[in-house]
Design a protein that fits this description.
The protein is an alpha/beta fold and about 210 residues long. It has 11 helices and 5 strands. A 5-stranded parallel beta sheet has the order 2-1-3-4-5, sandwiched between helices. Strand 4, helix 4 and strand 5 form a beta-alpha-beta unit. Helix 3 runs parallel beside helix 4 and helix 9 packs across helix 10. Pfam families: GerE, Response_reg. GO terms for molecular function: DNA binding. InterPro entries: CheY-like_superfamily (IPR011006), NreC/VraR/RcsB-like_REC (IPR058245), Sig_transdc_resp-reg_C-effctor (IPR016032), Sig_transdc_resp-reg_receiver (IPR001789), Tscrpt_reg_LuxR_C (IPR000792), WalR-like (IPR039420).
């Protein structure tokens, strides 16, 4: 059984090139071509193809808006964004709208064909540069509190004294430990907070106090 595909792309040459290469495959077939967003919006839900190759920046509307409007009517259809845009906002708006793949137009036809098969079989294909951006986004979103939570009571005490401007010797004198022990605590603090110096450590402390 072949994979049914609709192409929504206002660049006619690219749209036709996609159709030609897809139809040449034994396991897939283009069942509809749309050259503007309005036509796609009106007709896609009646066709309900397995996969839609969706351009983001159509002349009359954003492909993202089409997905948002049709996704509920077409729960079994997978949408692959196929675009020249790599900016973060468009990537994440596409994924939030319900796209399951995101390809840059410069990708080889082999990559596009394998992505169609991949998304049909439950995958989420992305161009390498897009995947890197997505990973980077989620790394930035990881909760930052973990580092402070990992500090021992003594390490928190040392960090607070550092933030008050005390030197290592003054900290040692105040809490009755040697300067070498202070340095050891400070090293642990930097490692757990993933910082490289005193200023970064204090900034992180102040960030979570506020």
């Amino acid at each position: 059984m072949s994979i049914s595909i609709a192409i929504v792309e206002d660049e006619k040459n690219y749209n036709n090139a996609l159709k030609k290469i897809i139809d040449y495959q034994s396991d897939m077939k283009v069942v509809a071509q749309f050259f503007d967003g309005n036509e796609a919006l009106k007709n896609l839900s009646d066709i309900s193809p397995d996969v839609v190759m969706m351009d983001i920046q159509l002349q009359d509307m954003l492909g993202i808006d089409i997905i948002e409007k049709l996704k509920k009517e077409m729960p079994k259809t997978q949408f692959i964004m196929c675009t020249s845009f790599e900016d973060d906002e468009k990537i994440f708006n596409s994924l939030k709208a319900g796209a399951t793949g995101y390809l840059i137009k410069g990708e080889s036809m082999d990559k596009i064909l394998s992505s169609i098969r991949d998304v049909y079989n439950g995958g989420a294909p992305m161009s390498f540069s897009i995947a890197r951006k997505v990973l980077g986004h989620f790394e930035r979103k990881l909760p930052e509190t973990n580092g402070l939570d990992e500090l021992t009571d003594r390490e928190k005490e040392v960090l607070n004294l550092l933030s008050e401007g005390l030197l290592y010797k003054e900290i040692g004198d105040k809490i009755f430990i040697s300067i070498d022990t202070v340095k050891k605590h400070v090293g642990n603090i930097y490692r757990k907070l993933q910082v490289n110096n005193k200023v970064e450590a204090i900034n992180k402390l102040n960030h979570f106090k506020n």
